Amino acid sequence: MESQRRNTNRRRESRRHQEQMQQHVIIGLICLIVAVLVFGVLKIVNSDIFAGKYRERIGAHIDPVKPEIDVQLLTINPYSRPGIKTDEITGIVVHYTANPGATAMNNRDYFESLKDNHENQVSSNFVIGIEGEIVQCIPTWEVAYASNSRNSDTISIECCHPDETGEFTDETYRSMVQLCAWLCLNFGLNETDVIRHYDVTGKNCPKYFVENEKAWDAFRENIRLSMKNVPES
Fold first, then answer.
1. Residues 6+ apart with CB under 8 A from 232
2. What does the alpha-carbon distance between residue 48 and residue 45 come to, in Å, rounded to a whole number?
3. Left (φ > 0), alpha (ψ -120 to 50) or beta: where does 45 sit?
4. Cα–Cα distance between 26 and 109 in angstroms, integer?
5. Is 133 helix (H, G, I), strand (E, B) or coil?
6. pTM for this prediction
7. Considering its fold, how many domains does the chain have in total?
8. pLDDT at residue 30 in the model
9. What pLDDT score was predicted for residue 19?
10. Residue 167 lies in a domain
11. Element (H, E) at 185
12. Do residue 125 and residue 99 come from a single domain?
């Protein structure tokens, strides 16, 4: 009898062990399936995340900083919107239009006209007008023909101005600060990552900030302060 009880107990223990093993296998398979599904969804949403390329941050603390933007994307063409994907964004380049009195839409429409007249290869992701209006010409994940060797890893901002001095109106200036602050938050950058076209090529652009170094330093400081005042998510 004692031997039978021991055999019965062994069989019960063996079945219990097998059941536990089966449960562990099932749980493991479920975890694996979930991980594969999550990975697949993320890869579909943004495959470049896994390639270490373009990425944007998200968060409730970023959205309120976003300025009003009039999205007027250019037609894809070889002269102003080549449709080339950017690398990871590591900087923001500020330009001036060198076209006194022109509006943001004037400049945007000039970029668009290049697809037909082939006069030049030039464009910008954003143009800020004299009244502070912001027009987006090219998505931030696409290259603009603006900053030479830094086209592939920067976002470009062309800024309008009323006269030959290149000095910006208060409205333009405020939009420049707000747009730069939002883009910095969006791409994990800080004010030192905001540079002038001059810093890339030595060109006198943006003219007022190249010829007035203190004004440029103050502009960067205003970007820093704008970012500092944003609550953490």
1. 61
2. 9
3. alpha
4. 60
5. coil
6. 0.77
7. 2
8. 76
9. 66
10. yes
11. helix 170-187
12. yes
- Give the domain extent around 182: 63-228
Q: Are residues 146 and 223 in the same domain?
A: yes
Q: Do residues 75 and 114 make contact, with C-beta atoms less than 8 angstroms apart?
A: no
The reply to whether 185 falls in a domain is yes
CA–CA distance, 197 with 159 (Å, rounded to integer): 12
The number of beta carbons lying within 10 Å of the beta carbon of residue 185 is 21
Rg of the chain over Cα atoms, rounded to whole angstroms, equals: 27
Name the DSSP letter for residue 81.
Answer: B
- Output the CA–CA distances (angstroms, integers) from residue 131 to 10, 101, 126, 128, 218, in the order listed: 86, 11, 15, 8, 21
Could you report the per-residue pLDDT of 99-144, keeping only the tens digit for each?
Answer: 999 999 999 999 999 999 999 999 999 999 999 999 999 999 999 9
Q: Give the model's pLDDT for residue 44.
A: 44
Buried b / exposed e across 29-43, counting CB within 10 Å, b at 16+?
eeeeeeeeeeeeeee
**Which residues does the chain have with pLDDT short of 50?**
41-50
Determine, yes or no, domain membership for 55: no
